[in-house]
Amino acid sequence: MAERKLEATLYDAEPDVPYDDGAKTIFLYTRGTKGQVSEEVRQFLRYMEKSTSENVVNDTLRDFHHMVETVKKDREVSVKYMKQFERDNMMRAEGREEERKNTEREHARAERECARANALEAELKRLKSKML
């Protein structure tokens, strides 16, 4: 069986926009199959996929895991996370409701236009029969 490779890709979202803050967006694919990455990156991706103490295999991950565990135990952070989670769910629900309303409006508009087209066809047919 072939060894599964992990992939790290550097992506500049807007290469034409001159950013001066040094920030970069990096997409890390923990199940990638192309490219070569360092063992440290491979270990990090493995940890990101399954953030357990078994995957803490170097000092960097030990520090990172300690921060993760500290944040998980912080009640204030947990409350903020849950509030944000609830807000996100509410926004999604509002978005779905708005989309449903838009769909209903578009459906009603389409029905009106079909009725109008049918009326125009009937009028055209009536006028053609008058001319003959």
Task: Note the topology.
Blueprint: E1 7-11, E2 25-29, H1 39-49, H2 59-73, H3 75-131
Antiparallel strand pairs: 1-2
Which short descriptors sum up this protein?
two-stranded antiparallel ribbon, 2 strands, elongated, mainly alpha, 132 residues, 3 helices
Molecular structure report:
It is a single chain. The chain is mainly α and 132 residues long. The protein folds into two domains: 1-73, no CATH class; 74-132. The protein has three helices and two strands. The chain has a two-stranded antiparallel ribbon with strand order 1-2. The chain is elongated, with a radius of gyration of 29 Å. Residues 90-113 are annotated as: Disordered.
* Count of separate DSSP helical elements: 3
What proportion of the residues form beta strands (DSSP E)?
A: 5-15%
Order of helices and strands: EEHHH
Number of domains: 2
Sheet with the most strands, sense and barrel status: 2 strands, antiparallel
- Kindly state the mean pLDDT as a whole number? 84
Number of strands: 2
SS content category = mainly alpha
Distance N to C terminus:
80 Å
Shape: elongated
Question: Which spans have pLDDT < 50 for at least 5 consecutive residues?
Answer: none
- Summarize the amount of helix as a percent range: 55-70%
**What Rg, in angstroms, do the CA atoms define?**
29 Å
Largest sheet strand order? 1-2
